[in-house]
């Protein structure tokens, strides 16, 4: 049932009227196994959401709306969380960047450019493929971390495409993770559409041209942070992201989200500067006043080089800050898990 404004879905009316993705049960079975393993190992877990969501315009989808997100923030952060000892559930838009393989994305650093074809010692032998010597040290470093993450079972990947897939998956995954209580950090970096077309309004077949302009009236995607905090995973440490293009809106919108949803942190970022500066907006710990909200900027020099000689990534510092805040919060609220 929709609320009195038919274009305004509550989370409840959304899930009562929009169908789940066909792979949901299978995905959740995998998550359940992952959660049981991490519980046994006593690991902290982070759910990283990453990449953009699509909004289909037809049931037999030819056209859809999309957004800019490549999944860099999520994929990069997932690597730093693994390094910090977290098990990572990486929920990402299909074909967006992934931890480790992101270093060799097809457009910026094509994988085939790493390889050489070696002539055989004996003419009748097959050709050999080798890695270009100058590329070996970096590839070895990335490959070692990749293999370790997979062999240890500390990285589990889920995919979504549409905003509907995302919402169903987020709810089901949060409910599964909630058994781990305070040991779970939710890092919601995906760029999720604010508007969608409900299944009931979708044209079954490809929208035909020839009748002049196309007018589409979209409904608002329900605000899911509230039920996430109150019902799906009440003990989780929830970090959401807020993207704006007007810098004057960033902090007011982030503060409003903290006040409205009551989760732990909003990380605000501007589209154009997001790789070099973000702002952490959160309630002041220990303050009795729920409106006591502080902002702290985290900035890096765009030309900085990290300890390994690579360009510095702001996600390294974002993750370090969150790891320390998460632990302080666990200590303050429960004396440890
Ligand atoms: O994926 P990316 O690295 O290109 O961009 C990251 C980001 C800007 C999508 C992320 O930092 C973010 O702000 N996500 C939330 C966006 C929003 O719904 O407001």
UniProtKB/TrEMBL annotation:
Q: What superkingdom heads the lineage?
A: Eukaryota
Give the protein's recorded name. DFP-domain-containing protein
């Amino acid at each position: 049932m929709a609320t009195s404004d038919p274009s305004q879905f509550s989370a409840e009316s959304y899930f009562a009227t929009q169908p789940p993705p066909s792979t949901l049960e299978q995905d959740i079975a995998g998550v359940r196994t992952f959660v049981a393993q991490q519980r046994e190992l006593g690991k902290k877990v982070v759910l990283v959401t990453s990449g953009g969501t699509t909004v289909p315009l037809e049931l037999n989808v030819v056209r859809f709306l999309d957004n800019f997100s490549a999944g860099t923030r999520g994929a990069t952060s997932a690597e730093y969380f693994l390094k910090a000892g977290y098990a990572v559930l990486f929920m990402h838009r299909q074909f967006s960047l992934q931890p480790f393989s992101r270093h060799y994305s097809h457009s910026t650093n094509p994988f085939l450019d790493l390889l050489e074809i070696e002539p055989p010692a004996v003419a009748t032998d097959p050709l050999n493929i080798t890695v270009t010597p100058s590329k070996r040290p970096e590839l070895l470093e990335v490959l070692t971390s990749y293999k370790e993450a997979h062999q240890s079972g500390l990285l589990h990947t889920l995919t979504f495409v549409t905003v509907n897939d995302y919402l169903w998956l987020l709810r089901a995954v949060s409910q599964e993770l909630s058994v781990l209580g305070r040991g779970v950090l939710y890092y919601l970096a995906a760029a999720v559409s604010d508007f969608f077309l409900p299944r009931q309004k979708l044209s079954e077949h490809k929208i035909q041209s020839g009748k002049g302009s196309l007018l589409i009236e979209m409904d608002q995607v329900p605000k899911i942070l509230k039920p996430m905090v109150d019902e799906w995973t009440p003990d989780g440490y929830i970090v959401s992201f807020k993207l704006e293009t007007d810098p004057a809106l960033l902090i007011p919108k982030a503060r409003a989200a903290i006040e409205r949803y009551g989760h732990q942190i909003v990380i605000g970022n501007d589209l154009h500067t997001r790789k070099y500066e973000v702002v952490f907006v959160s309630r002041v710990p220990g303050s009795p006043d729920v409106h006591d909200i502080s902002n702290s900027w985290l900035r890096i020099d765009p030309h900085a080089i990290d300890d390994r000689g690579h360009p510095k990534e702001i996600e390294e510092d974002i993750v370090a800050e969150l790891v320390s805040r998460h632990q302080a919060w666990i200590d303050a609220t429960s004396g440890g898990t």
